[in-house]
Hints:
Largest sheet: 6 strands, parallel
Number of strands: 16
Shape: globular
Strand content: 5-15%
Low-confidence stretches: 31-106
Order of helices and strands: HEEEHEEEHEEHHHEEEEHEHEHEEHHHHH
Mean pLDDT: 82
Helix content: 25-40%
Structural class: alpha/beta
Number of helices: 14
Amino acid sequence: MSEKSMLPSRFLFCLITISIFLLVLSSLFLLQFSDSSFIPNSVFKLILVNSTSVYFEPSGKEEQTKVPIVSSVASLVDGKTPMAREGDCQISNASKKTDALGQGRRKGCDRNQAHLLVYMYDLPPDFHFGLLGWTGKANQTWPNVSNPGQIPSYPGGLNLQHSIEYWLTLDLLSSNSLNVVRPCNAIRVKNSSQADIIFVPFFSSLSYNRHSRLHGKEKVSANKILQDKLVDFLMGQDEWKKLGGMDHLILAHHPNSMLDARKKLGSAMFVLADFGRYPVEIANVDKDVIAPYKHVLRSNPAAESATFEGRPILVYFQGAIYRKDGGAIRQELYYLLKDEKDVHFTFGSVRGNGINGASEGMASSKFCLNIAGDTPSSNRLFDAIVSHCVPVIISDEIELPFEDVLDYSEFCIFVHASDAVKSGFLLNLLRGIKREKWTKMWERLKEIAHHFEYQYPSQQGDAVDMIWGAVSRKISSIQNKLHRKNRYSRSQMLLKMN
C-alpha cells in the first residue's frame, strides 16, 4: 500500500483516539463537579440492577451499595456479614472516604436512597427520655444524640429485654446527624406529608415497668395517665384523622404495655414481642411487626464458640418453671427431664450470678429449650441464638421476628407441645441429631446472630435495621387497604359533583 493511501487511515485513527480522550475527560469533569447548578440532579439516580442498588456518587466514584433487607431477600438471608459497611449513609471525621480524585468528603443520608421516610411527633420528654430521668434545657425535647455522653442510659437487668422503643427512637434522632454513622434505611423527615410512616415515640414498656403500680394515695397510675394523654394527643392530630391512624407506628414490646390504650389505637401498626395478650382485631401478623427481645446474656464471639465436642450438656433450660396459661408445659417437662444425666433443667433468675451462670451454661450446651411461658415468647430464644446454642422451640402460638426473610428451620428445632410431653420423645429426637446436622445449624446461628443485636449507632443488618425493614415491608399492606377502601369513594364524589 502506498504512503498516500495510508494517510486517510492514519487521520481516522488519530481522530478516533482524540475523541475517546475528550469523552473520558468530559465524563470525569461532569462527575467531579456534579454539585454545580448546571448539572441536573436527575442525572444521578438510583439504578436497580438485579436487586442491587448502584448509586453514582457526585465524588466521581461509582459505588455499589447493597440494599440491606428490603430490596433483596436473598442477600439478607445468605447470612454473611458484610466485610465493609457499604450501607452506611454518613462519613465521620474519624474515617472519611476518599474519592477518585483524592478529596475526602462528608455526606448525610440521601432521602432518595432511604427505604423508609419517617415523621416523628415531638412529644414532651415525659413520654420518652424523661422516663429515664433526663431533663434537657428549656424547650429541649430531645437529648443530643451526636454526643454519646449526653444520651441517658437504659436500666439494666430484665428491663433491657423490652427496650426496643429506646433503640428505634435513638436511631431516628441520629438519622439527621452528620456525626453518627448508621445505615440509610430509615430517615426522619420534618413534614408529615412526605412520610411513609408516622412514629409515636412513647417508651411504653419502660412506663409499664416503672409506673404501672399505684403509690401512696394515687388512684390512677402514672402509666395510665400517660396512655390517656397519648390517646388524647393522637386523636387531635390531623395526621391521625387523615387515615384513622393506619399509617402510625406504635411500639408496645412488653406484653402488658399500652393495656389501657391499645384498643383505642388498634388501627395503628404495632411493634410487639408476640400476640399472646392481644385480640386478633387489635394486633395480627398482617398489619403488625414482631421484634426480637434484647438478649440479656452476653454475645458469644463466633471465633470462641464451642463446637459439638466442646458442649457437654445436651439440653439446657434455666428459668421460671411454674407458669400459668400455656406455660404449664414447663412443669411437665421439668419432671420428665430433671433427672437425665446430660440435661440441665433447673430454676433460675437474673439475680446474683444468674446471668453469668446462664451465659456459661448456654455456651456449653448443644440445645437450649425455649418453652412457652405466660406468653408464647421470651428472651430465652435470643439468648440461645447469641450463645450459638441450637434453640428448641416448644411454643405452638409463637410468632418470630423477620420470618418473612429468615428461615428459622435452618437453625432451630420446632416441637409441638403435645409431642414434647410424651415420655422419651424429646430426648430421642435431640440425641438422634448427629454432629454433622448440628454443626450445620450451629454455623447458621453464627451467621444470623447479628440480626438480633441492638446497639447505638445501629449497624447494617442488626436488630434496629431489620425492624425498619420489616416496617417497610408492611407498608404495602397499608397501601393495599387504602386503595381497596377508595374503590368507590372517588366515583361517589364525582356523582355528588354532577
